[in-house]
Amino acid sequence: MGKYATKTSIRKVLISAVMLVTALSLSLSISISTYLDVKKQKQLIINKLEMIAEIIAFNAQVTLIFDDRKTEEKRLKSFDKVDLVKNIHIYAIDDVTNRPVFFTSYNASKTPPVPLKVNQIEELRTPKISEDYIELILPVEYEGNIEGYVYLRGGLEHLAEYINRKILVDIALTLFVLVLVMFVARGIQKRIASPIESLSVLLQDVSKNHNYATRAEKSDIEEINILANNLNIMLTRTQNQLERHQADKLEIKQLNQSLEEKVNQRTIALREANQELLNTLERMHQYQNQIVENEKMASLGQMVAGVAHEVNTPIGLGVTGSTLLRDKLSDIEVAFQQKTLTSKQLERFIKEGIENLDLIYRNLNRAADLISSFKKVAVSQDIEINSDVNITKLLNAVMGAMRTELELKAPQIHLDCPEELTIRSKSGLLQQVFEQLFSNSLLHGFTSDENNEIAIKVNREDQQLTIVYSDNGIGVPNAIKKRIFDPFVTTRRGEGGSGLGMHLVYNLVTQALGGSITLQEDYKSGTQFVISLPLKGGTQ
User: Fold this and answer.
1) Dihedral angle of Cα 420, 421, 426, 428, to the nearest 10 degrees
2) Helix axes 222-337 and 343-377, enclosed angle (nearest 10)
3) Packing angle of the helix pair 10-65, 157-209 (nearest 10 deg)
4) Helix axis angle, 157-209 relative to 222-337, nearest 10°?
5) Helix 427-440 vs helix 391-401: angle between axes, to the nearest 10 degrees?
6) What is the pLDDT of residues 173-199, one digit of tens each?
């Protein structure tokens, strides 16, 4: 707000309010009326054009069947007296391509031709209204067969003239009503403003001179009379209140002094409590940060220990093999230089050398495989493009590729998936997911070669694919259920398990495929995973 508020009067407010309400009501009424009228006029024009188009279509049946362009052109020229019609096209159905082609046309005087609309037939089957024109297309049918189409383009200039005339009439009517309302409002405000001004003078006297004994006079306006009575009651009560005020003033002063002392005491106590609370909160933040940091370091330490353990074993064996081979080679070199080398000694060296080289080769390959597995942990979403994937065929291909591994434990595989279910996804990544799940069951789940079962249920709901993978193996130990998808978590450490399989599955599903995977912890008959994948490209 500015330093000085804008002043006004009840006269101005009353006249402005009446004029504003009247103007808004008239504007709303006229706008709605104009909108409905224009909509009705447009519909009438559309109906008229549709009727004309139906007449043209009916007349064009014979000319299209007998390819009589001259008769049709002569007939279309009769529309030069219809101002509404601007352009007419008639399209015939080509016998070879069975597509609509130009047959003949009509353009009104001083109206340029329009491009052919053979590619917009379905679009213009519903009338299309633009700023200046209305376009529509109707089929030419004969005995149930479509012989061609009629394109009709009508002008809206008459509608624009009608709207302009209506707007001018509405504006003139609005101005007349506003002037009339202004005169009526002036008469009303004079009758109301005079008693209000008397009350205002009375209130000014009370404010300046504190003359609470004065009273307002009655008025012939009921509302103002009620206001005057209430004002008199207020003056009476104010007068009585002032008398009691002097008696209570001293008592209030004493109470205020006592209250100030209590407030100071409570403020000191509250300040001390707040400070203690802030200190406690600061310690909690410190403990929380320390706990988070400890968790991070513990997780990092576990991962580093896993990497070190997995890689150190094959590298250590390779170093041992290379050291033994070097010692044997030194012995052979000494015997060769001293000329004491025998054929048996050389044969034994060759045999032991081959064994050591095989040991080094196997462990270097093991280290290379581990490093390759580490690389797979970081899954990129751009390594493969989406393609149409039939889930049943993909699972059959995976089982065919893993036939040798599956025959070792001979599980019965129950597949519940519609054969026609096809999704838009990355087939290579899905194949890796199923291969890792099969390998997990074979390596960790099944302890014997009999009564092993694997169940895969695939279901589609709207734009989501749900895959439930279950086996009847020994299940997941409770100690690692919460960490099943963490790297290097395995129950077969040193027995072929690296602890990266389920972590790779988790990364493939969540990062590369954009879905989710969960372990059903309450599943009692083995292990069960639930995979949910979004169907971005739809399904078939």
Assistant:
1) -60
2) 170
3) 160
4) 110
5) 50
6) 888 888 887 777 777 766 666 777 777
User: How does pLDDT run across 478-494, given as a tens digit for each residue?
Assistant: 878 888 888 777 766 55
Tell me which residue of 177, 190, 231, 204 sits closest to 9, measured CA to CA: 190
Structure token pair of residue 166 = 């209506």
Q: DSSP per residue over 260-300, as a string?
A: HHHHHHHHHHHHHHHHHHHHHHHHHHHHHHHHHHHHHHHHH
CB 98 within 8 A of CB 67: no
* Cβ 439 vs Cβ 501: under 8 Å: yes
Reported for 260-268, long-range contacts at CB under 8 A and 24+ positions apart, including other chains, are none
Helices (H), 378-487: 391-401, 403-409, 427-440
Tell me if 533 sits within 8 A of 509, measured CB to CB: yes
Going from the C-alpha of 91 to that of each of 61, 67, 139, 279, 334, the distances in angstroms are 11, 11, 9, 87, 104
- pLDDT, tens digit, 9 for 90 and up, residues 443-452: 888 888 888 9
Task: State the pairing for strand pair 527-534/464-471.
Answer: antiparallel
DSSP 419: T
Q: Are strands 412-416 and 422-425 parallel, antiparallel or unpaired?
A: unpaired
- Among 119, 110, 118, 59, smallest CA distance to 87 is for 110
Distance CA 411, CA 436 (A): 16
Closest-CA residue to 426 (of 502, 501, 540, 536): 536
Integer Cα distance of 280 and 267 in angstroms: 20
